[in-house]
């Protein structure tokens, strides 16, 4: 385990279809609703909103971050159903597509951000900054 | 025994675990030095971590030395497992979907 706060989910899948075809399947709401959930919406641009919805669970808000067709797609989504994007607990889903030798696509999926990793990192940054201020303040005397 | 999730919910405690993982055994003084909080506050965090079984303490003269115990972190992996299984199911469905619809046209009758 590299970092106790960083729970990362990783999956790799080899597919017979071209990256362009796979891109279509993971970005077109009409296709997403056939294999991902029961319905979907995705405003395919950085900052764009969307959702992934299961009739039995509810609607999970999505916000698009990176769109680089047909190789790289990143969006974050809210863990809790039927909660507005800004109010929920968010994890980040990264889709990387690469052409497979001899045809097809290698799809790598990573989901990160479980357990508030970003919160942790911002805290570390905060500590570092505060520590520098503390160092300046106590320069010449013993800290704490 | 305090819950592992509760123990790691606090960023200071996660930072302590990370330092013990990276640096091995450390005293309270060594753990407190980079933190903008008092040694007493660090000791409180260490007691929570010890209660959850995530660290062990050992006396060396006047100092207590702290060491990471990673075994309870297995609970986090167990917690993540259902999410992992959900992605397995989705990706299996993606594969089937692509096999059934090799072209970009998606037939309407396939939709719910």
Portion in helices of chain A: 25-40%
What is the tally of beta strands of chain B? 3
Please provide the ordered H/E string of secondary-structure elements of chain A: EHHEEEEEEH
Interface with most residues: A-B, 40 and 39 residues
Q: Which short descriptors sum up this protein?
A:
heterodimer; A: 144 residues; Alpha-D-Glucose-1,6-Bisphosphate, Chain A, domain 4; 2 domains; 7-stranded antiparallel beta sheet; 3 helices; 26% helix; 40% strand; B: 112 residues; Arc Repressor Mutant, subunit A; 12% strand; elongated
Summarize the structure in short:
With 144 residues, chain A is of the alpha+beta class. Chain A has three helices and seven strands, in the order βααββββββα.
Textual characterization of the structure:
The complex is a heterodimer of chains A (144) and B (112). Chain A is an alpha+beta fold. Chain A has 2 domains: 9-112, START domain (Alpha-D-Glucose-1,6-Bisphosphate, Chain A, domain 4); 114-144. In chain A, 26% of the residues lie in helices and 40% in strands. Chain A has 3 helices and 7 strands. Chain A has a 7-stranded antiparallel sheet with strand order 1-7-6-5-4-3-2. Chain A is globular and about 45 Å long. Chain A starts with 6 loop residues before the first strand and ends in a 6-residue tail after the last helix. Chain B has 112 residues and is of the alpha+beta class. Chain B has 2 domains: 4-71, Arc Repressor Mutant, subunit A, CATH 1.10.10.10; 73-100. Helix content of chain B is 56%, strand content 12%. Chain B contains 5 helices and 3 strands; from the N terminus they run ααβααββα. At the A-B interface, strand 1, helix 1, helix 2, strand 7 and helix 3 of A face helix 2 and helix 5 of B.
């Amino acid at each position: 385990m590299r970092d106790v706060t960083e729970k990362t989910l990783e999956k790799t899948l080899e597919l017979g279809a071209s990256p362009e075809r796979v891109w279509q399947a993971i970005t077109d709401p009409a296709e997403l609703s056939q294999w991902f959930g029961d319905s979907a919406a995705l405003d395919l641009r950085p900052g764009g909103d969307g959702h992934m919805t299961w009739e039995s669970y509810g609607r999970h808000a999505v916000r698009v971050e990176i769109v680089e067709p047909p190789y790289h797609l990143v969006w974050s989504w809210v863990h809790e159903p039927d909660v507005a994007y800004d109010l929920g607990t968010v994890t980040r889903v990264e889709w990387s597509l690469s052409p497979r030798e001899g045809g097809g696509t290698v799809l790598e999926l990573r989901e990160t951000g479980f357990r508030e990793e970003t919160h942790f990192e911002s805290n570390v940054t905060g500590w570092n900054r505060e520590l520098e201020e503390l160092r300046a303040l106590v320069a010449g005397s013993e800290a704490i | 025994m305090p819950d592992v999730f509760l123990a790691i919910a606090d960023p200071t405690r996660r930072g302590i675990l990370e330092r013990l993982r990276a640096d091995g055994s450390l005293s309270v003084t060594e753990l407190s030095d980079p933190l903008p909080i008092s040694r007493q506050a660090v000791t409180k965090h260490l007691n929570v971590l010890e209660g959850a079984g995530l660290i062990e303490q050992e006396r060396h003269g006047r100092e207590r030395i702290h060491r990471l115990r990673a075994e309870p972190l297995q609970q986090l992996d167990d917690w993540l497992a259902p999410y992992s299984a959900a992605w397995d199911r989705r990706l299996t469905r993606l594969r089937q979907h692509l096999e059934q619809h090799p072209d970009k046209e998606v037939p309407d009758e396939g939709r719910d």
